[in-house]
Amino acid sequence: MKHSEHIHVLGICGTFMGGLAALAREAGFVVSGQDQNVYPPMSTQLHKLGISMHQGYDDTPLQESYYDQVVVGNVMTRGMPVIETLLSRKLPFTSGPQWLGERILRHRQVAAVAGTHGKTSTAAMLAWILEANGLQPGFLIGGVPRNFDISARLGQGQAFVIEADEYDSAFFDKRSKFLHYHGDVVILNNLEYDHADIFPDLEAIKTQFHHLVRTIPATGRLVVNGEDANVKDVLMRGCWTPVTTFGRTAEYDVWAEKGDAAGRHICLHAGAHSAEFQWDNSGDHNVMNAAAAAAAALAYGVSLPQSARALAGFVGAKRRMEKMGQAQGVCVYDDFAHHPTAIASTLQGAKNVVGTQGRLLAVFEPRSNSMRAGVHAAQLPAALATADVAFVLMDPQLRWQESARQAVLDSPLQVAESVSDLLQAVRQTVRPGDTVVFMSNGGFDNAPRRFVELLTETDKASA
Description:
- By secondary structure, the protein is an alpha/beta fold.
- It has 3 domains: about 5-100, Rossmann fold; about 105-310, UDP-N-acetylmuramoyl-L-alanine:D-glutamate ligase; about 320-460, Mur ligase, C-terminal domain (Protein-Tyrosine Phosphatase, Chain A).
- It has 16 helices and 23 strands.
- A 10-stranded mixed β-sheet has the order 8-7-9-6-12-13-14-15-16-17, with helices on both faces.
- A hairpin with a 2-residue loop joins strand 16 (about 265-270) and strand 17.
- Helix 9 packs across helix 10.
- The longest helix has 16 residues, at about 445-460.
């Protein structure tokens, strides 16, 4: 259905807001936007959709055009000229999550994937399972599933899969984004302390997760990690929806076991039913993600064998152990891991794949708000311990307490103050047969690609 409404999206080049803009355009809305960082690949994708974009946070677009609604991303803050004009002129505005919930999700069968870790991969798995079984789902995922090669679409079916983030909605709405989605099937993948910039402690995050539980209808389904004590604690506060548990042993409703150390051969179980598959996604975390996705798919009428066949063809999401290249006998991967638990799990999965064939090198950028504030700094040495050699970018601007900084300096971790110095240090250490995993939830100054180019240039020079 076509709309004559014109929405203007503030913070349009973020992964979530860019996906929202794409959905709005596909739904027939007239869409424009602005952001401080209007550059490829997001700018290219949005331009292809006919979405005009303004560079910067000045108020020129609000002075020159009329919009039926301004959709505000959570990157926007008071004091920005565009926000001050928005408020002083009393223009109609809403948050991105609220607009999405009201205009796109209201009449869909929403599968919301929540948790501290694994949201992108699990949402991508579930969307692919539903797609492979003919349900033609819509989705909005905070990454790019390589089975689809896009991060958002409306879809032709009733199902809609969304990565349900606990981050706040906007400067004027400090509720978690996922409260606006009104999920019918909700996955609670895990729960740990993170996002120290908006949550004072773990209890505050648990409260938001329980607010989410309160929004799920009794006709819906909660799919929960039965192994996670914090998730159990949230449900103890009250639950009004049927629950399906998942885990890695037979005590759970849906459980997955590895047939090999790397986690490349998986067997799924649910009651008397079981199904096996093989895939190229390593690590215990992906075993759990697969169990969660298969458990959620049951609520959409997709059987365990049907999920297994789909998962066998799942090729992962970009920046989730994405192979960037190989040169001089060295394999280079890019990964989004940024919390100590995710770092440790990613590296353990990679180590199981590498085995005794070569060394595993880890290269980490403390990029998340929690990491930059030093909340998890003291845990870094242990999180990176699985790697044979580990490097950390120690930007002098990191807001770490001296004790945390010293703990890293006193550990076996190798540190560098710039990406260029870091790449040279890795280059001097690496040798044929090694696997190098770069980890950051930011751009890392394009370090993984630059390292592949560095290796390739050396190859050409020696040819």
